[in-house]
Write a structure and sequence with these properties.
- It is a single chain.
- The protein has 1082 residues and is mainly beta.
- Among the domains are: 109 residues, Carboxypeptidase-like, regulatory domain (Immunoglobulin-like, Sandwich), CATH 2.60.40.1120; 124 residues, TonB-dependent receptor, plug domain (Ferric Hydroxamate Uptake Protein, Chain A, domain 1, Beta Complex), CATH 2.170.130.10; 152 residues, no CATH class.
- The protein contains twelve helices and 54 strands.
- The strands form twelve sheets. It has a 22-stranded antiparallel beta barrel. It has a five-stranded mixed beta sheet with strand order 10-15-16-13-14.
- A hairpin with an 8-residue loop joins strand 11 and strand 12.
- Keywords: Cell outer membrane, Membrane, Signal, Transmembrane, Transmembrane beta strand, Transport.
Length: 1082
Amino acid sequence: MNKHAKRTVLVAGTCLSVMVAGFPGTLSASTGTMIAAQQTKSISGTIVDSNGIPVIGANVLVKGTTNGTITDIDGNFTLTVPAGAILQISFIGYNSQEVTVGEQTSFNVVLKEDTETLEEVVVVGYGVQKKKLVTGATVEVKGDDVAKRNTISALGALQNQSPGVNIQATSGKPGDGYKISIRGAGTNSSTNPLYIIDGVAGGDINALNPADIERIDVLKDAASCAIYGARAANGVIMVTTKQGKAGKVTVTYDANVGWQNVYKKPDLLNAKEYMAVQDQVAYNNGGNPYDWSKYIDADLLADYQSGANEGTNWLDQIINDNAITTSHALNISGGSELSKFSTGFGYQYQDGVIGNIAKSDYRRFTFRLNSEHIIYKTDDRDVIKFGQNLYYQHAQTQGIQIGNQYSNAISTMLRANPCVPVYNANGDYFMYDDLKNSGTDGWFAYNSYTSNPVAEIVNTQSGNNKSKNFNLNAVAYFEVQPIKNLTYRSQAYYKQYSSLWKGYTGEYKINDQGNAADQSTLSENMTIGWNWGVTNTLNYKFDLPKEHHFDVLVGTEYSREGNNMAETLEAIAKGNVFTDFSHAYFDNFTGRTGLATVGGYPVDDHSILSYFGRVNYDYKERYMFTAIMRGDGSSNFADGHRWGYFPSFSAGWVISNEQFMQSTTNWLDFLKLRASWGQNGNENIGAFRYLATYSFGDLGQYPFGSDKNSATQGGYPTRLSNNDLTWETSEQTNIGVDTRFLGGKLSFTFDWYSKKTKDLLINVPVSSINGFTTKAANAGSIENKGIEISLGWNDSVGDDFTYGANFNLSHNKNEVIEVNNGSGYVEGGNDNLSQNTGFMARMKEGHPIGYFYGYKTDGVMQNMDDVQAYLNQNCGGNVANSLQGTSIKPGDLKFVDVNGDGVINSDDKTDLGNPHPDITMGLNLNAAYKGFDLSISAYGAFGQQVARSYRKFTDGQYENYTTEVYDYWHGEGTSDRYPLLTPGNAGPNWQNISDIYVEDADYVRLQNLTIGYDVKRVWKTCPLQQLRVYFTAQNLFTITGYKGMDPENGMALNSNEPWVTGVDVGNYPQPRTYMFGVNVKF
């Protein structure tokens, strides 16, 4: 669809919704004439609750008309009404009132709390339920709380809001997402929960504009999630976008603009320091200091040695100071009792704090249109109604490459030589050839660390890359209620997504020995996918005598998804085809000399058929019981294993409703015990994983011809089949307590859970007669146990000051219970810290998943006596039993003989740390006083470790260092932590995984501070309903002992090993942001 067509569809859709829903403040000609003939007058008033606190947004409507308004931030309203009018005043959570106008012109109305609706409603699977009656573990986050965080992603705003929900940014790069786990990592595949967006499973929460969200409900235990069966093992996050409300058309506009900066940088060596350290390395290896005049011009060398010129700080070269970020959101909503709508438009832009020389930014356009229309209604129900939800997103990202240790621009900058300038005397990029006497000495011969990394980013795909993503989500539903409390609902949806990545490397030359190209290369990857489904439910609510209440739901669901196309293209041509990356398109690629790569894969089709049912029962809202059963049939599995069944049972007891608790009513408002048990599944193992696969290529060469010397490419098997593959199944038990005290001012929630996930998919050994050594099988299990605590206080002082504080804390213990592959463990993270360092993480029985695995050290050998003492104590006095062997010397690490057998070898490797926090906490504070509002949020994580790998790269031969190099051993008594520096740092000290790489990464971060003021407080004649200005600061400070740029680390270096996390390879840090904004309502 071209841009003009998209624009036409969006405009037409908006206009259609508005025409169907109608504008409540607009009257027809005949109606207008009739009212004009009547006598009218202007009235005003104030709406407050029973505590005298203004009710903001209450509906004030003239009965029998669509003439109405809503109250402002002070609870005030004004309205022109006809004589004898009756006002209908309503607000969610309060009983509606009718007030006859009569002769009065001023009204003070007190709304009474509705004990039915005030007991909050929680969104559950395929419906809603009173929070008082919920027997599972759920948490609600209001949309206003999400929007006030002013984050690009809703997950960023959800961080710290709910105990047991661990959200970590994968990086601070614009457009990057978050890693999320609910109640611990229960799988060795993705831990992301199932997202339900407006009733549709499988949505992308990162595609939503936070300003479009009405509420988020997190379902954490098996009883809450069981209704979603095979896809709910990792928990469920339900997102409800903003819906239309009956009343006058309301327009809101939220906008902000700000600037971002890197607030913590590694302290790199300057040129003088670098040369001194390199001389020390040469000395440590028995050599002489370098004659730097051989490589650097005399004037420049003199400036370096005097400190007049500190050389090149390559990281500073790509840091973008005061990077701009801005967001705009427009929402229009309104309607009548029979038809209502809500539509939203959004634009967000974020410039990267790292990129500078290469454009690094993210921009997103969003459009949303929701409407609902009642075709026929009676006094007690909506008999027939229908509605739709439409959401569209277009996002574009461009920026430097980050990710693993081999293609990471930040890591490259950290290790680049500071003696190499960015530009030469001619103003061109400095090349290796510009070095004095280049190549005359083996030390300064060309290598990647005497290159110019800035020039490489500017000229190659490392900086010249762009990705575009499109998401379209359309939902339509139809609901019939033939008799009261019997509701049939049918819903259909269609989703489509596409992504395009493009990278361009033009003709460039950085040196004469490497990193040179006399041709242009254009690469492109494209994917198009779709998903559609139909859900039908029948819900019946009924009561039996003596206050027995039932709510019964049955339903069926079918969904299907797949990729229409996925392709990879690469073209090569002589010369510099494009002078500007923005013109790099295949259609413009002239003079092509070769089509280096054409690849892709066919349609990937997957479907699920489901049947489900739920029974909710309560007696006098005192005793509750819920039972759920869902059956899912998935095409991901072979015949005989396609169907899985997922039951759950839960119960609750509202103790505070018992007669024997009546004496506590003056201080105890509510006390409920909850207990649940259930099973959920995870069928996300990939389509057709049970089938064998074949490929064609060089590995399939077969000899042909009479001499059998001609080889022809052919087919060969790449994976063994396993028809017995089945679901991962999570079984969870939960016990919880919900309480409220002192008139609802104080609230407390506690949950204990035990969750065990079995049938994890891992590779197990098979006989080599098959041509393979392993195949995939269900052969692992993981257990998570923990507690969650939430504590809240909300109160007011007088009529003007309100305040609140909410604190949450969770503790989780993760343990692998079974790895049934013969060895009892799976290894991952090969060579993540550096080449030849081997595997650094394990999934092993009795340990947390992904724990760091390697050698423990006990300091550094200070002298030869210390060396001999170490050998006697750990190696039986024999150097051959040490890792260092005959080269052992002062300055080497003391590797610990963990098993005590007198030999240091791989049997001594052990647990070095856990990338998952033991404890997480969140704190949210808020206050309001006479138009001012303040909110503060903080987040903390404790007990986790990070393996920092960019330090190893900056400790290699020719590489630069951070000032941590001064903590390395350089003589007796200088260090008992880090070993002696040697050229390349080859050998056991550095090329074995050990605890010198692993650091504690506890931290507490002040995430958000917002101060706002409603200008209407001083501008009394302001025609707007709201005019709020605000200032927000994000990531104001982080308290941590971690020496890297950012202790928050949710990135997995290898998408095939998502369970290997907590590795810092020079991660893109989260920026510190300051922004100013405005909220307008009219």
